[in-house]
Queue: 2 jobs
Job 1
Amino acid sequence: MPSTSFAQDVSKLFNVGQVNCMTAIGVHLDSYSYMADPSADNIYADHANARHVYARLTGDETPRMPKGGPFWTPAMLAIFYDWMQGGFQP
Ligand code: HEM
């Protein structure tokens, strides 16, 4: 079973409007180097960018994203989760 790829599986889950909205806030949803950045922050011990994105998608961090919905289905969330579990592959 090939591992989940950012380019093949994750990036297409974000639409242009979402990418543009978040780029303005410094969150680069379409950028592998941003989303797979291994750096920690005061909340996550590694890959803080991706983990904050996931927490906003699930609603663990609020306001939940995408702002105003529609929120992701369990299947979409599973793709992003598998990407993280699979080692943030390109
Ligand atoms: C799937 C799509 C989206 C994801 C994964 C996402 C992710 C995030 C993340 C991670 C933050 C926290 C940023 C930070 O504190 O550094 C955030 C905040 C924010 N996002 Fe989004 N976003 C999405 C779509 C959108 C859209 C479409 C809009 C505009 C309509 C939007 C507007 C905002 C705003 C205004 C904030 C700051 C609000 C706050 O934190 O209180 N986002 N989003």
Job 2
Amino acid sequence: MRRLPLVLACWLCVAVGLGCATAAPWPGPVPPAVGADPARVAADVAWLADDAREGRGIGSEGLAAAAAYLAEGFREAGLEPGSPTGPGRAPGDPQARSYLQDFEIPVAIRIAEARLSLGGVAFERGRDFDALLNSADLEGELEVVFAGYGISDEESGWDDYAGLEVEGRAVLVLDARPADDGSPLSGVRGAGFLSRAYKLLNARRHGAAALLLVPSAADVEGLPGGAGAQLANPSTASSGIAAVALSREAATRVLPDLEALQAARDAGAAPAAVRTRARLELAVRVEREQGEVSNVVGVLPGSDPALAGESVVVGAHYDHLGRGEFGSLTPGRRGEIHNGADDNASGSAGLLALARAFAAGPPPRRSLVLVGFTAEEAGLIGSAHYVRQPARGIEDTVAMVNLDMIGRLEDGPLTVFGAETSPRFRSLVEKAAEGAAVEPTFELGANGPSDQTSFHTADVPVLFFFTGTHPQYHTPDDDPERVDAEGTARVLTVVERVTRALLDADERPELVRAAASRSAAPGGGPGYGPYLGTVPAFGGPPVAGVRLSGVTAGSPAERAGLRGGDVIVGYGGAPVRSLEEYAALLFASRAGQRVEITVERDGEQLGFVATLGQRR
Ligand SMILES: [Zn+2]
């Protein structure tokens, strides 16, 4: 991408109303770098991404070994232990004793039990049926009611539950939407009703005890929705209703006239109050295993008494996908080690190189905090935990620099996200890149899908360095030999210079809260559908609802009065239990709609009304 002249860039930000810092020059020169040794970088990447680390999956020994490796690197470089919590530290004790900030999270999830039979005749698990990972636990006998596509849409008037008695029963629901292209549920808006989270929420809202998800096409083999081979993100929340996937063949055994019922519904006939004569016996139990994981925290205290109380955080996640239990882009290769050399052994090796460089160089005026984040792949969990329990106060954290995938520079540009969060950041990076044979390009994305988001929603200016995606991303082929260590060392020169400048500047950088984000979060980023501007918090103690880590500046959510810390428990009159449900409800709304949102705040339930905007 051609780099735009500065003045034009600012005009562009203003024209499209994006919250962009009015760019200003970084005052004075940027300090030189000690620099990184490409051979050490390559060695650290090779160790962290070795098969022996098993892809550094959540709860694995390989992940724990990687944490110890980072801690040892910090210790060797002369950084102080910085864990705000962890072993040997009494509450309020100012002196950290460890580099490891330990905390508990779900590390594995599995279907512990799933049995289904009809009139005493058992179905075969895996072939005829399987439970979904977000199923609630249930054991009992149920009547089955056919509930079409499981959709209730006020706007179009389509309601599969109209006139049905489903309280305490199992609803059999088609895993699609009405086929008719003329139907008000076709097109992009209707896509919101395809989501399984929406169908579960709507069934629960109507009082059903279980949902049986069935393929809509009569000739489909196997189970819908990847049931039985589900990607097991340990932080998958329960949907609050039993959830089972059935094959079409098994569904026809439950409801012999399924095809006729579906055809009638497609033709617009009212939902037929059809119930099974035989009773369904269902038992489902989902097991979540908790385990200990650690952020790795090292501190280089500042030398200037006036500024040492302030800090700059440089962070990188060191976890990856293990054997592809979830997040893999090659589901067919699950079980293979996803080495994660670029994602993110490269950033972790970068932390070690910076530890060595800063310990060897002149002491900084402010304090430097280096953090290896855990559980980024499961939802920015480690960085969110750090922000809640920081080594140095978040309000005194003057900037956060994130390194995620800096291993594939080759002869491409270095992408820098977040410069819009402080007026002088762009000029600072450009100055730091002078003479480093690195071409920075700038993208909006302070609230993008990596750890800087946890900091920016806590009002910290951020910069995120990234050398670009590639075909090996999130596959078993992201291997050390593909990492361009020499390029990574060049990137680290820029990062070191930027960080030194931030540590030694007289003034702390001014914050500009990013208005438009490329967040993957519902209601946050560009794309289709209504815009609300909430930024969900990841990790932390589980809640029934969606905890917000913040709202985007100038967004409908901010105007309505929502704020970070709120837990959304109701949307448009529907109770909300999880992010998936919230996303489904939001997706099914439309720009300009006034929506009632119920939150829990300081132990109280409060109601707000927001007018949804249009996503750009
Ligand atoms: Zn990553």
